[in-house]
TrEMBL record:
Residue ranges annotated for the FAD/NAD(P)-binding domain, each copy included: 4-281
UniProt entry tagged with the keyword Flavoprotein: yes
SUPFAM superfamilies assigned to the protein according to its UniProt record, in alphabetical order: FAD/NAD(P)-binding domain
Organism listed in the record: Pedococcus bigeumensis
Organism domain of life: Bacteria
Catalytic activity: [thioredoxin]-dithiol + NADP(+) = [thioredoxin]-disulfide + NADPH + H(+)
The name this protein goes by in its record: NAD(P)/FAD-dependent oxidoreductase
Record InterPro entries: FAD/NAD-bd_sf (IPR036188), FAD/NAD-binding_dom (IPR023753), Ferredoxin-NADP_redctase_2 (IPR050097)
Lineage of producing organism: Bacteria, Bacillati, Actinomycetota, Actinomycetes, Micrococcales
Keywords per UniProt: Flavoprotein, Oxidoreductase
Length: 311
């Protein structure tokens, strides 16, 4: 079967949560997933009520089983394009050459983290180089922590990280801190290092320090990096979905995009959504999608009735 009520592109927490709600509403649902979740390097996920500490892969495995248990179809393949086929109907082109149709489309393809160009960051990503103190702060609490500058918001970010440890150092390029920034950092005993970072020091597969270009090494057990978030929204922009001046999707209630029949959920539109938030957004979008389909079902039934159609 290649015809579905809803095609969900992206099989993370947002996409699977939406698929679960829709399959339980007796909708024909296909989930298309590339199999490359953003949180794959992380050993555990935190802050998800009743699932705190669970490996991310286990959560997704459980979600796939639940969706399939209600008749949903899951295919591990990349969606290469989405085309508006006719009013409120879409064709989704797949990397294996197949194409499927859906009355509605939900895109939950997430984002990627763009890191500063410092040797070693990517290799330690989601291990002891971290991006979210709410996700990982408890696991490194009271240890020697660093924050790597990645734009003006890094000062506020360092103040947030300070909640989890007394020994926090901000690595910042010289000449960028304002007097107010410096005063706020000093007031909370956050160290300031204004020498460029050359790389990381790793011993026995553990981060032990940050090496500076002058040769000095600052001992650190974990390094927080506020990354630049880049949404995976190529499918949406090619469809003509509106983006704002920062390049993020413009969304209405419950994830509706500017293109009728197309919804979004999770990090593709909300960079701050954690796993539990993305799952909630997927659920809310699914309910909105089903309501939209019900309205179309009613219109079609009335049209057929008025045409004298007898089922």
């Amino acid at each position: 079967m290649n015809n579905y009520d809803v095609v969900v592109v992206g099989g993370g927490a947002a996409g699977l949560s939406a698929a679960l709600v829709l399959t339980r509403a007796r909708r024909r649902v296909l989930v298309v997933d590339s199999g490359t979740p953003r949180n794959a390097p992380a050993a555990h996920l935190q802050g998800f009520l009743s699932r705190d500490g669970m490996p991310p892969a286990d959560l997704l495995d459980a979600g796939r089983r639940e969706v399939e248990g209600y008749g949903g179809v899951i295919r591990q393949v990349t969606a290469t394009d989405v085309v508006a086929f006719r009013s409120a109907s879409f064709q989704v082109l797949l990397a294996d050459g197949d194409r499927v149709s859906g009355r509605r489309v939900l895109v939950a393809t997430g984002l990627r983290d763009e890191l500063p160009d410092v040797p070693g960051l990517l290799e330690r990503w989601a291990r002891d180089v971290l991006h979210c103190p709410y996700c990982h702060g408890w696991e490194v609490r009271t240890r020697q922590l660093g924050v790597l500058w990645n734009g003006p918001d890094s000062v506020r970010y360092a103040q947030t990280v300070r909640q989890w440890a007394d020994d926090v150092v901000l690595f910042v390029p010289p000449g960028v801190l304002t007097n107010a920034d410096r005063g706020h950092l000093v007031a909370r005993a956050i160290g300031i290092v204004e020498v460029p970072v050359a790389g990381l020091v790793v011993e026995d597969d553990q981060l032990t320090g940050v090496e500076l270009t002058d040769g000095h090494i600052v001992p650190r057990a974990a390094l927080f990096v506020p990354p630049r978030f880049v949404p995976h929204h190529g499918l949406l922009t090619r469809l003509g979905c509106q983006v704002d001046e920062q390049g993020w999707m413009v969304v209405g209630p419950f994830g509706a995009t500017s293109v009728p029949g197309v919804w979004v959920a999770g990090n593709v539109a909300n960079p701050r959504a954690q796993v539990i938030t993305a799952a909630g957004e997927g659920s809310a979008a699914a309910i909105a999608i089903n309501a939209d389909l019900v309205e179309e079902d009613v219109r079609d039934a009335v049209h057929d009735f008025n045409q004298g159609f007898v089922p």
